[in-house]
Design goal:
Helicase, Ruva Protein, domain 3, Alpha/beta knot, about 260 residues
């Protein structure tokens, strides 16, 4: 199951942190490192910091966008070091480890780490199923990127050992698999367009409509069948709205 956990680093500035993350990943028995548009990579400093974990760097997947890095995942956890204006479902590191290992029984999962200076953007965090916060010393809360990877990779390993002993509860007792993150993103695009079509949502003055809807659906955790049903409902609404507008424009009476 540890092989199904992706560690995703977004726009990493210092290549040494990539090497340090690779070392942390191998220490804890994980294997997947994904890099989203790193500023400097490949780099000698990454190799030096990786020590004997250069095989993790050799297998690292470099992509241009976060969407590419989380494609195919059924759950995504974003690391967040600060409170957000709109709170999101939040895990502590231990809960995160148990959750990602339990979900890795079914599908790929990803843990996303942001930039060294400012973390993940709100838009990136909105793509996540959960957020995780490492409760460090409030007087000095800034963690090195590789150290943060080490903490969460350690918790994933501890959960995997629990699972080997038969002590990890099944957190996914459901009849249909959870919808994949990429499919949920397509649904949100569809939802936003449908809300625009019926004049409920204004893209030029969005306020927090889509953000709060994302949070709502995140709490529900849609499965594949539910997502398919909702896509069908949106299509039916759009079709009915199109017919209504055609009738109104042609002067016909509508019921």
């Amino acid at each position: 199951m540890l092989d199904k956990i992706r560690i995703v680093l977004v726009n990493t500035t210092h290549p040494g942190n990539i090497g340090g993350a690779a070392r942390a990943i191998k220490n804890m028995g994980l294997s997947q490192l994904w890099l989203v548009a790193p500023r400097e990579y490949p780099a000698d400093r990454a190799l030096w910091r990786a020590a004997n974990a250069t095989d993790i760097l050799d297998m690292a997947v470099v992509v241009d966008t976060l969407d590419e890095a989380i494609a195919g995942c059924g759950m995504v956890v974003g690391t967040s070091a600060r409170d957000r204006r709109i709170p999101w479902p939040l895990l502590n590191p231990r809960e995160c480890g148990r959750r990602v290992v339990s979900e890795a029984r079914q599908h790929q999962v990803a843990i996303i780490f942001g930039r060294e200076d400012r973390g993940l953007t709100n838009d990136e965090l909105h793509k996540c199923t959960y957020h995780v916060h490492i409760p460090s010393n409030p007087d000095y809360s800034s963690l090195n990127l590789a150290a943060a990877v080490q903490v969460l990779a350690y918790e994933a390993r501890m959960a995997a050992l629990e699972n080997e002993r038969g002590e990890l509860p099944d957190l996914n007792q459901w009849d249909v698999p959870p919808a994949r993150i990429s499919d949920i993103e397509m649904y949100f695009q569809h939802l936003e367009q449908a809300l625009v079509d019926i004049d409920f949502h204004d893209r030029d003055n969005p306020r927090q409509t889509m953000t709060r809807l994302r949070r709502l659906y995140g709490r529900i955790r849609l499965d594949e069948m539910e997502l398919s049903i909702l896509r069908g409902v949106l299509t039916a609404i759009q079709n009915l709205n199109h017919k209504y507008r055609q009738c109104r424009e042609s002067g016909k009476k509508t019921e």
